[in-house]
Design goal:
Layout: E1 5-10, E2 13-18, H1 28-43, E3 49-54, H2 67-70, H3 77-85, E4 91-95, E5 98-100, H4 102-109, E6 112-115, E7 120-122, H5 136-144, H6 146-155, E8 159-160, H7 161-166, E9 172-173, H8 178-191, H9 211-224, H10 230-243, H11 246-262, H12 264-278, E10 296-300, H13 304-315, E11 319-323, H14 327-346, H15 352-360, E12 362-365, E13 376-379, H16 385-398, E14 404-407, H17 414-419, E15 427-432, E16 441-445, H18 452-464, E17 468-472, H19 480-498, H20 502-512, H21 518-525, H22 527-536, H23 539-542, H24 549-556, H25 582-594, H26 605-625, H27 632-642, H28 652-659, H29 661-675, H30 683-690, H31 695-703
Parallel strand pairs: 2-3, 3-4, 4-6, 5-7, 6-9, 10-11, 10-13, 11-12, 13-14, 14-15, 16-17
Antiparallel strand pairs: 1-2, 7-8, 15-16
The protein binds nicotinamide-adenine-dinucleotide (NAD).
Amino acid sequence: MADVVTLSREGPIAVLTIDNPPVNAMSQSVRAGLDQHFRTASSDAAVKAILVLCAGRTFIAGADLKEFDTGVHPPLHRDLFAAFEGSAKPVIVGLHGTALGAGAEFALACHYRCAVPDAKIGLPELTLGIIPGAGGTQRLPRVIGARAALEFILNAAPVAAQKAKEIGLVDRVLDGELRAGAIAYAQELVSQGAQPRPTSKLSVDTSGFDEAFIQSSLAGVRKKMRGQRAPDYAVEAIQAAIALPFEQGLDRETEIANLTLDSLESKALRHLFFAEREVAKIPGLAESVQPRNIRKVGIVGAGTMGSGIAIACADAGLEVTIIDAGAEALARGLSSIKKTYESSVARGRITAAQQAERTALVRGANELAALADVDLVIEAVFEDMALKQDIFRTLGKVCRADAILASNTSTLDLDAIAAVSGRAAQVVGLHFFSPANIMRLLEIVRGRNTSQETLATALAIAKRLRKVGVVVGVCYGFVGNRMMLDGYVREADQLLLEGATPEQVDRVIEDFGFAMGPFKMNDMGGNDVALRARETTGIRAQRPSPYNESIDEMARMNRLGQKTGVGFYRYEKGDRTPLHDAETDSIIAKVAARFGVKRRASISDAEVQLRCVYPLINEGAKILAEGIAYRSGDIDVIWTTGYGFPRFRGGPMFYADSIGLANVLAEMKRLHALHGHYWEPAPLLAELAAKKSTFQEWSKSRKA
Ligand SMILES: NC(=O)c1ccc[n+]([C@@H]2O[C@H](COP(=O)([O-])OP(=O)(O)OC[C@H]3O[C@@H](n4cnc5c(N)ncnc54)[C@H](O)[C@@H]3O)[C@@H](O)[C@H]2O)c1
């Protein structure tokens, strides 16, 4: 194997180049190479300064995540960084790509930092539930001050070189090429007689770092890192940088970092980090299968979903032709696309030039014949089988023979849609989530006849649209909606009939960490949507009432939620704040009476939580056993990216594994005895519980 770190000379400058593809992770071999060449360069009298660069597309983009599990072998980060920091000769780093995590921490231990303009620097540790543990929390406050350091660490997002220069994190933004520019900068420092500048010797600027600032920063971050402790630990580490001498501060940082590493929160977040990458690996999909090149997309249906999908496509630079049956509906769709872009400009998310570019990519049409030349069609008309089949029949005739046809159906049988298209191998489900231009999740529905090439193309499209594409099989509601409707929402509804209130259920679920409780969610999406799906698919008839009966009653009474001003909650005009509505209580009581449901004076919060969350686990187990999802991690990704399940709990299946499947099973049996057949434990759950195994182990064993 070639050396991952090499040493070369440019006049008086020793250049250490790291080449550890793909992202130059700070692995043991990189540390060993840096250590070795640093010693050589240090003892060479002709060397006046040491410059560290990376080959490939980026500077060190983080720690070697494998070491989370294997443990860290010497040279340790702390010793290595101390050696560079203690160098008698100035040490300079040249940054490009993304200097993240341990990469940024290493840069902080060096004396001078230069960067190409598009380089980015960040400490994303908090997104994994940990704190920077290689000196970052101690050195960053010494370089940019405690206040800016806390902002930087809590933000967890990388900053661009120019911004890094403004806050004092980077000394020089280079113009032009990295290597030549960095060498010139190092030579300039040598000729100026620049001295080593060890960060550890600097004092921390504490101005503005007061309790009020800390509390308001934590409050801000809690919104996006709901339920997570790592932000509080980050504050503690920075306080240690102020209160303690450097070495003791590092000791404290290590203690805190180890604590966070061991936390369930960070295990959950790391699980999701890997699971989000694993979703793209499809068992049986040969690597040799090449995705089709997609440039032109047709969208059928310019409603809520169609227009959102059009924006997602145009954002990715794809040409879009959007069709609707009625001229008015089309005009509405096009105008909503235009408005979304206008508001993005107003909010500073995109420039006016980008708006113009993207708007120009979208054109409307009235006839399916306008899609004769597109590479991919995404259908998003009403959730109605006959209508969708009609459209696929026509698309099969008017589209180019090699075009791929996708449906955005949320519940319908994709195989029945594919069957009429005349090209079932080129049909796939692309199940977007609302708002389609924002939500990261894309369920890719693999039909019985979907070809490998079509599937590979769907995965490539997901990537192109910057979404997490998770491949699922065909069944009612696929993975996400099936678990939601058949488990979570069903039981939430049942709890109302037994005596809970929408407010209580929503509060308990939000306290558990969900972004939004089920009744606020129903009111937002429209209580009619699920009823229509249940009726058109015949699912309502198959299931004994009072399955989802209070939601359906709301829909039948035209209490559709926010769009009609009243649903489970009442809404003032122009305001989305859910307000209590006494009428809801009496409707629920009437439905309960109609079905003879015995009402209780109160239901404990603990019962509400368990009865809403455990059905997800049970349904998930059935989905795994049926092969509708490949891995438990896929289900976790679907629920955390598409349904607001708390990330710090790792998704429903990871959550089950973390409580222990035997415990889950015992509860499930108890509820089965009390509440009947919906609670019958899934056979896979029972099997794994008996073996003291986990969903994750089961998923891994099947891969092998
Ligand atoms: N709304 C959601 O949250 C959501 C999420 C995921 C998937 N879906 C699915 O997306 C699809 C569309 O849902 P929506 O919420 O955008 O519905 P919508 O009612 O907002 O839009 C449907 C559009 O299709 C148009 N249409 C109807 N018949 C047509 C035809 N023959 N040719 C062309 N256009 C036609 C309608 O005029 C309307 O503009 C459904 O299959 C739905 O299940 C919806």
